[in-house]
Amino acid sequence: MRKSHPVRRAVLATAATVSGIVLLLSLKPASDPGSAEAAGGAPPAAESVQGGARPIGDGTVTGDAAQTQYGAVQVRLTVSGGRITKAEAVQAPKGGQSDQITSNAVPRLNQAAVQTQSGDIDAVSGATYTSAGYKESLQSALDKARASAPAGTGGGDAAQAQTVTGDAAQTQYGPVQVRITVSGGQITKAEAVQAPKGGQSDQITSNAVPKLNQAAVQAGTADIDAVSGATYTSAGYKESLQSALDKAGG
Q: Domain of life of the organism in this record (predicted)?
């Protein structure tokens, strides 16, 4: 039997290694399996048009319907004082599993649109197509609102907005105090600067306060529903919110 030459063995080993590396590099990464909707790939995030130099006009505006693999998504915005005060989906995928995805994703997307004041919002996990369609229609609505803004309105929002802090409302578990930002006669932001804390109150506060903040912005009044399991915190929040509204002139 002939013995293989050492140099020949080294050359063959090197060639095999190089071939393996080339094969690995040629493989394409698999698509994100994070959701059933991810297989088709979502379009890139829409560029934000909201900003001090490019104001958006007041009123209600509906974006163009965005077609997705699971149905159309269409967003309607309410704008006051150059800010989004309400966002809602007037069309969204429905039927079968889409009902569950829509009911979970749309409220989060609505909240994100109000919070970010732009079309640059994060997709909801498990709702890739719905999120992409929402962002597309949202951007369309923002473009229309921007086009309807009167000339020379840049910076007007900052001049009209006011921030007011309500009186602290005492509850059995600690004070609750609410601060709101008002622009164009609408609440554009609500936050609790004081809330019950310590022990179980930490969990109750972290669950209830974001919901109460959102409800205050959406309702525009102190007539908001209490959060289940946070009766005292909710009552204190509403009392302080009403105080802030009174200070802001109703």
A: Bacteria
pTM over cut 0.70: no
Q: Are 113 and 138 in contact (CB under 8 A)?
A: yes
Beta bridge partners of 36: none
Convert the pLDDT of each residue in 147-168 to its tens digit: 876 655 444 444 467 888 999 9
Q: How far is CA 12 from CA 19, 85, 102, 188, 234, in A?
A: 11, 69, 58, 70, 75
What are phi and psi for residue 45, nearest 5 degrees? -60, 140
Instruction: Indicate the burial class of 27 (C-beta count within 10 angstroms; 0-12, 13-18, 19 or more).
Output: exposed
The 8-class DSSP code of residue 34 comes to: T
pLDDT digits over 20-56, tens only? 554 444 444 433 333 344 333 334 433 334 433 356 6
Helix (H, G, I), strand (E, B) or coil at 81: coil
Tokens 């005060």: give the residue.
Answer: 85
| Angstrom distances, CA of residue 205 to CA of 15, 87, 220, 237 | 64, 25, 21, 11
What's the CA gap between 45 and 60, in Å, rounded? 23
- Count of other CB atoms within 10 angstroms of residue 84: 25
